[in-house]
Amino acid sequence: MERCKENPIITPADVKPSREGYRVLGAFNPGAVRFGDEILLLLRVAEGCEPREGYACVPVYRFEEGRSYPDILAFWLDDPEVELKDTRGVAYRGRNYLSTISHIRLARSRDGVHFTVEDRPFIYPIDEREEYGVEDARVTFIEGRYYINYTAVSRDSWATALAVTDDFHTVERLGLIFHPENKDVALFPERIGGKYYALHRPNNSGFGKASIWIAESPDLIHWGNHRCIVRPRDNPWESVKIGGGAPPVKTDEGWLIIYHGKGEAGYSLFGLLLDLEEPWRVVRRGATPLLTPEEPYEREGFFGNVVFSNGVVEKDGRLYIYYGASDETTCLAVADVNDILASL
């Protein structure tokens, strides 16, 4: 992979806060898609509150009378019922509040490198299932429509929700499609044997480690026949957990998956090839990462030593791989499809 010389291509400074009193801490982990003559990114925008002396302030969403809006809760630091959870948030009277909250924001580009970020959120929390934010969108063009799956975060932990749009102006919410704790969902862009398929990543709290699973569906809503197809390996880059990335890319040799692995070296990107007709069958898997945190913007930031991709676009015969760096900025790496396939 060749990193874009202009990395990072989007930083928090490029994004307008969604309300007064908020500050943008991260613009990262974008979904990506071609739309007309544009490339669209669906950025995860993480916001916190401007500091206020003597108080711990946290961002929240309010849900009232069928509408939702961002707000601020301010906790007096001398209140004995206020418990600071290091940088992650505040606990008050038995309830946890996060120090940041995320929404999805659109960014548009003609060349795939220089983006204009829209001023308003595109997908934002609308009910209690998303009360702690919406994160890490993937967008897949399926049968003439753009399906967007994203992580919905609440006091019940994280789950995966689905939405659909035709114009990237209006969005129809379709609800949760994978219950807690399950994320890193990537939809295949076409039916296989008459069925829809998706990669997903349930959390393991008992035996085993977080791995990549596959499921099938008749309608993109109801999912079953779950199977684990790829597990972490004992190496420096993916010994802790792995998860799917962008929607699969169809090639003559199989479905190309760019996935992430977490190990002692942080988060890295890998390549994986699945069979075209039997996508639960692994054809090849790269032995070493395609991309590891090396540049300063990948090693230092809100959460350092992270490269994480959930958006890939084919352009001029090459793959434009958009990735989040250190949970703070958006970057770009470009690679020839055949070069990636040859490396697996």
Please tell me about this protein's structure:
By secondary structure, this protein is mainly beta. Helices cover 3% and strands 54% of the residues. It has two helices and 26 strands. The protein has helices at 296-299, 337-343; strands at 2-3, 22-35, 38-49, 55-64, 67-76, 82-85, 89-92, 95-98, 101-109, 116-117, 133-142, 145-154, 157-165, 172-178, 182-187, 196-202, 212-217, 224-230, 241-243, 249-251, 254-263, 266-274, 282-285, 307-315, 318-325, 329-336. The strands form seven sheets. Strands 19, 20, 21, 22 and 23 form a five-stranded antiparallel beta sheet that branches. Strands 1-26-25-24 form a four-stranded antiparallel beta sheet. Strands 2-3-9-10 form a four-stranded antiparallel beta sheet, with no helix packed on it. The longest helix has 7 residues, at 337-343. The protein is globular, with a radius of gyration of 20 Å. It starts with a strand and ends with a helix.
Observed structural traits:
five-stranded antiparallel β-sheet; globular; 3% helix; single chain
The H-and-E topology, N to C, reads as EEEEEEEEEEEEEEEEEEEEEEEHEEEH
Which value, in Å, is the CA radius of gyration? 20 Å
Number of E-state strands: 26
How much strand? over 45%
Distance between the termini: 13 Å
What's the mean pLDDT score?
97
